[in-house]
Amino acid sequence: MNNKPELSGSTLKIMALIFMLIDHTAAIVFPPVLARCGITSFGNISMEYMQGLVAVGSIGWLYVLYQIMRRILGRLAFPIYCFLLVEGFERTGNRRKYAGRLFLFALISEIPFNLAFRGKAFDASYQNVFVTLLLGLLMIWIMEAVRERFRTRFREKGLGGDGADWKILVVDGAVFFLTAAAGIRQASAYFTTYVSAGGSQVVHMGARTELQEDVTDMTKHISITNASQINDCYVRVKVFYAGPFEVTYTDR
């Protein structure tokens, strides 16, 4: 008799929904409140910075709660949804209908999602998670179709046996590599600019900067311009990148 507790698919769906609700609540409700207190950037999660905010008062605790809700609890939702996606792909009786339902939910969710996160009904640069899950489902479907096609060819040519699994594994790796390579140009435009300020007090002195990004020929150009008409603006930039890329800068 197996008395070990098990998580059903329904339980996982409820857990993922709760985690996503926590994440979206923090993302929509907290920023306006924090902005009224002078905190407009949320990328700094260093202990020193958060301890400085907590020392100021309750707004610091609100910032810490925001980070917990978004970066710890909220981040649990997507892996669970991905697991359920793969399980659904393997167990569904009709994959076309399964993909169709994801597409339908993506359409239904897009306008509310854009209004909540972008403040406008249509924004082609940022889509809801159902779009991501649908693309993931289609990728799994394509990989399986390619695998089965090559498996059939191997059998027709008498290349089955113990080495067939390794051949299929190579095919899977090639499909994954080509898919990843196709997205390098688009992916290079993300996760670039996180603006944050350390210290326990936020002081506005009239200086203002504007950020512009441009990607051409696999090279990203980031321009920081002082838009203030009255003050000089001193900027410290920290760049995180993976080698063997080269980082250069000019001061104009």
Strand order of the biggest β-sheet: 1-2
Radius of gyration: 24 Å
Helix/strand-derived category reads mainly alpha
Low-confidence stretches: 184-207
Number of strands: 2
The backbone outline, from C-alpha atoms, is extended
Mean pLDDT: 75
Describe the secondary-structure layout.
Blueprint: H1 9-36, H2 47-56, H3 58-73, H4 77-91, H5 95-117, H6 129-156, H7 164-182, H8 184-187, E1 209-216, E2 219-226
Antiparallel strand pairs: 1-2
Helix pairs in contact: 1-3, 1-4, 2-3, 4-6, 5-6, 6-7
What does this structure look like?
The protein is mainly α and 252 residues long. It has 8 helices and 2 strands; from the N terminus they run ααααααααββ. Strand 1 and strand 2 form a beta hairpin. The relative contact order is 0.08.
Brief account:
The chain is mainly alpha-helical. The protein has 8 helices and 2 strands, in the order H-H-H-H-H-H-H-H-E-E.
Give structural attributes.
8 helices, mainly alpha, two-stranded antiparallel ribbon, 252 residues
